[in-house]
Design a protein that fits this description.
Chain lengths: 262, 409
């Protein structure tokens, strides 16, 4: 039987994994081991429900419900001095759990401490925008929308930021192939020439490593040269191997010393 | 209204529909002062900017997507293409994130080399900043002088790793090579030359220059509150009076044991940020001088010993069977870091450059997010530029020192 390859994750995968391979995990330590984080977590727990909290690689990770994000961000900003929101982005877990994981990376400049506030969203569920608290969320949430399709409610300008406005699909989803999907291969053809030219132009090649041995326009055939743009799909004329010698220079015999330092 | 067709192009730089006496000007995406592919839509009332909207994405190559489709070691050369003015800073930030995930630490000699390379990169980047900043404001000769010194710095990089722009000079777990012979002496010569030129050429040409001061003072004002709220880091944050340098506050590599100052300016304007860059270059030179004896005293080991994740040194691979097998698996399949997530911040020449990596125990990162400082520094343009004159827009863009490789990723 042919091996089943899941269609919901088209990203790169290991070509071989041992059957008995069990991946270890990065150790998580308890929050009580760090006094600052423990006090902070107590404050957060007073106002909202915390699903999980631990310290991983020196930073506290707090899992919360998506409805509480503004409450907890306000709390850490105004009470606990986490004045900067360094990053907002998401991780695609649609295939496993039907959910996105959204994280807010926060920085306390006075104590040089970082926490990550993590929440899980269902597909098509929107999250409240953090722009009223942190203006850095303006670009970050737009990028999150662009890359994953996660909408931030009450964002001042919820538009695509990196991809063109009329792009189809959200590129960082696991279902989106690296080379782009069907719509991506027609995007520039439609834009530059118009939809009516699709048959003439053909779909854009979005694989930079693609090699076509019958394409005599873009690929040279060293030693087996054929005239430029000749159709050789039905066999080609045998040409004797003849390397050009007009451009070759024998540097050993050259009288001119190019590099005077030697 | 323009009626564009295939023969008569659409003049997108000008909008002729003027109903409220404002004019919309597209600054870029091909503008020499935009430092790359920045399209800045400016709404002008006379010469005053009433609305600025930075439109980015013209250099978007999907580097985060590529990271999900490459093994960890394959991805490292791709990070060169983020902030291509200071590639080693990107290589290092990525390598640090993966090392934290693996729980390994580079040996001391590798740390010394990395610290020197990072600071050399900071010098390269800051020289580039002074050069282009002066060029954008109109001082052509500073550009030529600064590029002369930058050339020496790039020669040093080339002597070490063979590349001038895309260095890939750091590996996960250490560095690939030891310093070549005489490199430290050349570095000393370069530092002396650079410090001399800094004082006698750039500063002499710019710092007290009347035109330079008039163009920079009270231009592009970013106060501390704005800088924090918009996620600005690095020289912009320190130029707003907040003394926060990740090298000092959350030290990595050898920075914890080195003696250097974090310059800070409370002027909030482009002139303060220029002065900061100059002072940071002096501090970088000071750091490199301190690292040199540490390097000389260190053991010659260059890569960490972690056989589960990193290949053994070449001699072992060539002589020992197990090392060869391990090397084969690591090259063909790639290393498999443990499950978990990490966010590792570093102080790149532009600001806080951090990599968030989510690993599911596969040889491919499940998610990699590059927190690029320039991305947020572009975001604040829509706030800073409002109310300034068109001539100051260029000053602000070059003063924010954004590089589009890392804005668009």
């Amino acid at each position: 039987m042919r091996k089943y390859t899941p269609k919901d994750n088209v990203q790169g995968k290991a070509y071989h994994t041992d059957r008995f391979w069990v991946s270890p995990s990065v150790p998580r330590t308890d929050v009580s081991e760090d006094a600052h984080f423990a006090a902070l977590l107590e404050k957060i727990k007073e106002s909202i429900a915390v699903k999980d909290a631990y310290i991983q690689i020196g930073q506290m990770v707090v899992h919360i419900n998506p409805e509480d994000n503004i409450t907890v961000l306000t709390l850490v900003k105004e009470v606990c001095d986490y004045a900067m929101c360094s990053e907002i982005s998401a991780v695609d877990y649609l295939a496993q759990d039907g959910e996105f994981e959204v994280f807010y990376q926060m920085l306390n400049l006075k104590k040089a401490k970082r926490i990550r506030i993590v929440t899980r969203l269902k597909e098509r569920q929107a999250i409240e925008s953090a722009v009223p608290l942190f203006n850095s969320a303006n670009f970050a949430e737009r990028e999150m929308y662009d890359m994953f399709g996660i909408v931030a409610n009450n964002h001042p300008f919820m538009k695509r930021i990196l991809m063109p406005d009329d792009w189809e699909g959200h590129p960082l989803l696991k279902t989106y192939p690296l080379q782009g999907d069907e719509a991506a291969s027609w995007y520039e053809v439609d834009k530059i020439f118009g939809k009516e030219y699709r048959d003439i132009i053909g779909a854009e090649n979005r694989d930079p490593s693609k090699i076509d041995r019958y394409d005599t326009k873009r690929f040279s055939r060293v030693g087996y040269e054929v005239p430029f743009d000749e159709d050789i799909s039905e066999g080609e004329k045998k040409t004797p191997i003849k390397y050009s010698d007009t451009l070759l220079v024998n540097y050993n015999k050259s009288s001119k010393q190019l590099d005077e330092r030697r | 209204m323009q009626q564009p067709n295939k023969l008569v192009p659409f003049f997108e730089n000008l909008n002729f529909e003027r109903d409220d006496n404002t004019m919309v000007v597209n600054f870029g995406p091909q503008h020499p002062s935009a430092h790359g592919q920045l399209r800045l839509m400016l709404e002008l009332e006379g010469e005053m900017v009433v609305k600025a909207y930075p439109d980015i994405g013209y250099l978007h190559r999907g580097i985060e997507k590529m990271a999900e489709n490459m093994t960890y070691n394959e991805f490292l050369p791709t990070t060169d293409r983020l902030d291509y003015i200071a590639s080693t800073a990107n290589n290092y930030a990525y390598a640090l994130a993966v090392e934290k995930l693996l729980g390994i630490e580079a040996p001391r000699r590798a740390q010394a080399i990395r610290t020197m390379l990072l600071e050399l990169n900071r010098l390269i980047s800051h020289l580039f900043f002074i050069a282009t900043h002066a060029l954008d404001v109109g001082a052509m000769s500073v550009f030529l002088y600064a590029f002369r010194e930058r050339e020496f710095a790039m020669d040093l990089m080339e002597d070490y790793c063979g590349a001038r722009l895309t260095h890939s000079s750091v590996r996960i777990g250490g560095v690939p090579l030891d310093l070549p012979e005489g490199w430290l002496a050349q570095m000393m010569t370069f530092l002396e030359k650079m410090e001399y030129e800094l004082e006698h050429t750039y500063e002499a040409l710019l710092t007290e220059n009347r035109i330079w001061k008039m163009r920079l003072e009270d231009v592009g004002v970013i106060d501390a509150e704005d800088a924090l709220s918009w996620g600005c880091t690095g020289p912009i944050l320190r130029g707003a009076g907040v003394q926060y340098d990740i090298r000092k506050e959350e030290p990595y590599e050898l920075y914890g044991e080195l003696d250097f100052d974090v310059p800070v300016s409370d002027r909030n304007d482009a002139y303060g940020r220029y002065m900061l860059h100059v002072e940071e270059m002096r501090q970088s030179a000071r750091i490199i001088r301190q690292v040199m004896p540490i390097y000389r005293k260190s053991e010659p080991q260059l890569m960490a010993h972690a056989p589960k994740y990193l290949s053994a040194p070449k001699e072992e691979i060539m002589t020992q069977n197990y090392a060869l097998m391990q090397h084969f698996v690591l090259v063909t399949q790639g290393m498999r870091p443990p499950k978990g997530e990490v966010y590792a911040p570093t102080e790149s020449p532009k600001g806080e450059l951090g990599f968030y990596i989510k690993s599911e125990g596969e040889p491919y990162a499940y998610r990699l997010k590059c927190r690029a400082p320039s991305f947020y520094h572009t975001g604040i343009l829509q706030k800073v530029l409002v109310g300034t004159y068109l001539a100051d827009v260029v000053t602000m863009i070059s003063s924010s020192n954004i590089v589009f490789g890392e804005v668009d990723r």
